[in-house]
TrEMBL record:
This is Chaperone protein HtpG. SUPFAM superfamilies: ATPase domain of HSP90 chaperone/DNA topoisomerase II/histidine kinase, Ribosomal protein S5 domain 2-like. It comes from Flavipsychrobacter stenotrophus. Pfam families: HATPase_c_3, HSP90. Residues 25-179 form the Histidine kinase/HSP90-like ATPase domain. CDD domains: HATPase_Hsp90-like. Keywords: ATP-binding, Chaperone, Cytoplasm, Nucleotide-binding, Stress response.
Length: 628
């Protein structure tokens, strides 16, 4: 049996196009060929189970090997195999049935992933690295003869009698000069680990060392001998393929450590298993989310029938779920071209909504079942939940029941509980409930204590995402505003329509303002003399809530228009407590003492907020020693 022919296409230029545009992502040739081999094994197993193959199915396996001297890579399986006619049908014709359309549509393509698979090019990805490809195969069908197919990357092929004596297929790649990097054990092992680690059929690649006990040494201790054993590269039954009832916590933790060996153990996880209206399995883990969210992303691995596809899953899961880790596997996720790029169609949107709902349900379950344990985890998962509430309206609606507000006393409240707590004492004259928050409790301690003296509760909002979460709460909560605790003096944080009398007359008030303006001597600090409780600090430095928030948003890259606020200089209000005894002392002092006391009181206000540094701090220390 020998036959020569021409591959059924309408142009001579198909292979140069494949080689040119697929070269940028050439390692996926191994994924495609091993996946095809796995499919062949699964099909013979299926035929055997259905009674449509009476022969011995045996243990299915795929073997990958390379020969650096001969410059070959071989992928072998004991699957279905093919007859010569099937080679002509499946290799020569189907792959290029749309060749004319292919060339027209992709002649200007710049991305390899636009090409593979679009017209059955999975097998032909072999030509990304090979100058010649051989198929040596024997079909499972009774009476079949072994067949060999050879193609050198042109449109010509040759079919002849093969020499395979057992059912299955060998794909032999004669590696081209540009791709000799793949003739390396560690390179191939790395690709197999990346794409084939969880394939459902055993995949073997060479050998690896192992140790066995053999006899005893002179002291009677067992002696160990190194031997070589088959190197099985994959776990054929990862936990997401099993029922949750089969698994223990340790199984989930071990799998997480296998995926992310350098990470801390996760907080908890969700096992996904749905078969209608789409197929989806997987395990999503809640990691301990650090403040740098970017480092947490792209940790979800997407598989299709246990073949790794990508860890870019932004179309499959909502943006905020990118902070989760784990695995998703779905044969129903549509993949553009060779399993590489996702299309946002109805199935993807359904999966997106399903995963969001399952995450919300899990969090709600944890909150209801053991609130104390949930509160202990809040510092780790709070940023994740807030991120979800900001970015997904449906998630926000569910999260209202389990999102927590933490105050500076480390007490936790749901949104509804917190509103009930603060409404009686923190409602202004217009009926607006004012939430007071601290973003840096250490620096803002004096403000927090002043607020606490008025029985105001202060929320803790110190994560990178909190400026956006604050804005979200103001949008969603009816007649509610949020103010940072240092946005104003405590008496003015919540305007209840109450007035405090100023003990100074207009002349004294003007004199005090003049003394402090001279002591401060900065256009960025606006001095005001206010009537306050005598027990409050003599000098308080604040920034307007709106301006400070705009500048915070600008620092975080808050979008169009924010850059304007970020470029403005910081401007502060210096509130002088006209009713404090120090003010009276300043008015009675001589001119030198007035300047000295005013500067000292102002520097103390700066110092309390960590705003006094360098030479000014040294000057303050020297002055303090002189005043003692």
């Amino acid at each position: 049996m020998q036959e020569k022919g021409t591959i059924s296409i309408h142009t001579e230029n198909i292979f140069p196009i494949i080689k040119k545009f697929l070269y940028s992502d050439n390692e996926i040739f191994l994924r495609e060929l091993v996946s095809n081999a796995v499919d062949a094994v699964q099909k013979i197993n299926r035929l055997g189970a259905l009674g449509q193959y009476s022969g011995e199915v045996g243990e299915g396996r795929v073997d990958v090997a390379f020969d650096a001297d001969k410059k070959t890579i071989t992928i072998s399986d004991n699957g279905l195999g093919m007859t010569a006619e099937e080679i002509k049908k499946y290799i020569n014709q189907i792959a290029f049935s749309g060749a004319t359309e292919f060339l027209e549509k992709f002649k200007d393509a710049k991305d390899a992933n636009e090409l593979i698979g679009k017209f059955g090019l999975g097998f032909y990805s072999a030509f990304m690295v090979a100058e010649k490809v051989e198929i040596n195969t024997l079909s499972y069908k009774e009476g079949s003869e072994s067949a060999r197919w050879i193609c050198d990357g042109s449109t010509e092929f040759e079919i002849s009698e093969g020499d395979r004596t057992t059912r299955g297929t060998d794909i032999i790649l004669h590696v081209n000069a540009e791709s000799t990097e793949f003739l390396d054990q560690w390179k191939l092992q790395g690709i197999l680990d990346k794409y084939c680690k969880f394939l459902p059929v055993p995949v073997f690649f060479g050998t690896k060392p192992d140790w066995v006990e053999e006899g005893e040494d002179a002291d009677g201790k067992p002696e160990r001998k190194e031997i070589q054993v088959e190197n099985k590269v994959n776990n054929t039954a990862p936990i997401w393929t099993k029922s949750p009832t089969e698994l223990k916590d340790e199984d989930y933790l071990n799998f997480y450590r296998e995926l992310y060996p350098m990470s801390e153990d996760p907080l908890f996880w969700i096992h996904l298993n749905v078969d209608y209206p789409f197929n989806l399995t997987g395990v999503l883990y809640f990691p301990k989310v650090k403040n740098d969210m970017d480092l947490q992303r792209n940790k979800i691995k997407l598989f299709s029938r246990q073949v790794f596809i990508t860890d870019e899953v932004k179309d499959v899961v909502p943006e905020f779920l990118m902070l989760l880790h784990g695995v998703l596997d779905s044969p129903d996720i549509p993949l553009n071209v060779s399993r590489s790029f996702l299309q946002a169609d109805s199935n993807v949107k359904k999966i997106n909504s399903y995963v969001t709902r399952k995450v919300a349900d899990k969090l709600n379950e944890l909150f209801k079942n053991d609130r104390t344990a949930y509160e202990e985890k809040w510092s780790d998962i709070g940023m994740f939940v807030k991120y979800g509430m900001i970015s997904e309206e449906k998630f926000y609606d569910k999260a209202v029941d389990f999102a927590l507000i933490t105050n500076t006393k480390k007490e936790h409240f749901t949104l509804n509980e917190y509103k009930e707590k603060v409404t009686p004492n923190q409602t202004d004259k217009d009926g607006t409930v004012v939430y007071i928050y601290a973003s840096d409790p250490a620096k803002q301690d004096s403000f927090i204590q002043s607020a606490n003296k008025k029985d105001y509760d202060v929320m803790l909002m110190d994560s990178p995402i909190d400026p956006h979460f604050i804005s979200k709460l103001e949008q969603k909560l009816d007649k509610t505003s949020l103010k940072r605790v240092d946005a104003d003096v405590a008496d003015k944080l919540i305007d209840k329509g109450e007035t405090i009398s100023l003990v100074l007359n207009d002349e004294q008030k003007g004199k005090v303002k003049e003394i402090f303006e001279k002591a401060i001597s900065s256009a960025n600090f606006q001095v005001e003399v206010d009537a306050m409780n005598p027990s409050e600090l003599p000098v308080t430095i604040t920034m307007d809530e709106f301006m400070r928030r705009m500048k915070d948003m600008a620092r975080m890259g808050g979008g169009a228009g924010m850059g304007f606020y970020g470029s403005l200089p910081d401007r502060y209000k210096v509130a002088i407590n006209g009713n404090h005894k120090l003010v009276d002392k300043i008015l009675k002092a001589d001119e030198v003492q007035q300047a000295q006391l005013a500067k000292q009181a102002y520097d103390l206000a700066l110092l309390s907020q960590g705003m006094l540094t360098g030479a000014e701090l040294t000057e303050f220390v020297t002055r303090s020693l002189e005043l003692i």
